[in-house]
């Protein structure tokens, strides 16, 4: 044993370094094994930072208790989701039927015309339409595959909301000095401000772009305006590239249905919407949010897509915001 220790010392390696390296590798392996739980926790954290300002407004102006304000925030969120689904899904399915007929995908017209709201048929339809749509439904099915997972997400975000003020004290096992406690509190505040602002800002931008696109396409007489507008709103999450991709099917459908003049009109509409977005909407909506460089957003989305599929792409920018905030709080400021 002494000989081994001496050889280790001679080779420049300390036994404590070897032990630390082994435990570090085991820790990384453990985190990899519970990656699904970590994703669920991060989703709950995103919900917490998005809903906390609403909950605080209820406490401030309606004099509600913390549990009641959180409950009312959840009720408001669920009502918005239900209203969104009830208003958009029926006409969306009808327009999707016509859109599929326009592009003449064989075997789908009969399926759409006899469509019923069952999960099995929805999955079969997604598989027929294409791998991209199937991937979206796969993400939704994987993330919210069971009622238990959904309620677990709600419960986690509820406790994060309820104990947000005491969260630095809850993490006291990693705090050794008052300075570390101050840094941790500052880090949580910065992450909440930037990540929550980015989530709320992106949702507002997606909604505005979707509405503007729907109004513009409807005014130009382009068919299937609703699915095209929803696509434009969803792709708003990808800066610069997303709006360009969303414009391609709109221009193609305008050309197939109404000719070159309609296609050029839709192209001009998309250019106007993009200029309005870049010069007015983004500065106004995102001014209090995280200032994420478009190139950094695209890289984060691509890296997330490579490492974690569609879910990784969705979480790429939020993870980048958190990592950037941690770096700024614990390394950049200290170096300055």
Give the SSE map.
Blueprint: H1 2-10, H2 15-33, H3 35-61, H4 66-103, H5 108-113, H6 119-129, H7 131-143, H8 147-162, H9 167-170, H10 178-219, H11 225-234, H12 241-258, H13 260-285, H14 294-335
In whole angstroms, the N-to-C terminal distance is 46 Å
General form: globular
DSSP E strands, number? 0
State the helix count.
Answer: 14
Order of helices and strands: HHHHHHHHHHHHHH
Structural class: mainly alpha
Question: Mind explaining what this structure looks like?
Answer:
The chain has 336 residues and is mainly alpha-helical. 84% of the residues lie in helices and 0% in strands. The chain contains 14 helices and no strands. Helix 10 packs antiparallel against helix 11. The longest helix is centred in the middle third of the chain and has 42 residues, at 178-219. The two termini are 46 Å apart. The relative contact order is 0.08.
Task: Please describe the structure with a list of short key phrases separated by commas or semicolons.
336 residues, mainly alpha, 14 helices, 84% helix, globular
Structure described in brief:
This protein has 336 residues and is mainly α. The protein has 14 helices and no strands. The protein has helices spanning 2-10, 15-33, 35-61, 66-103, 108-113, 119-129, 131-143, 147-162, 167-170, 178-219, 225-234, 241-258, 260-285, 294-335.
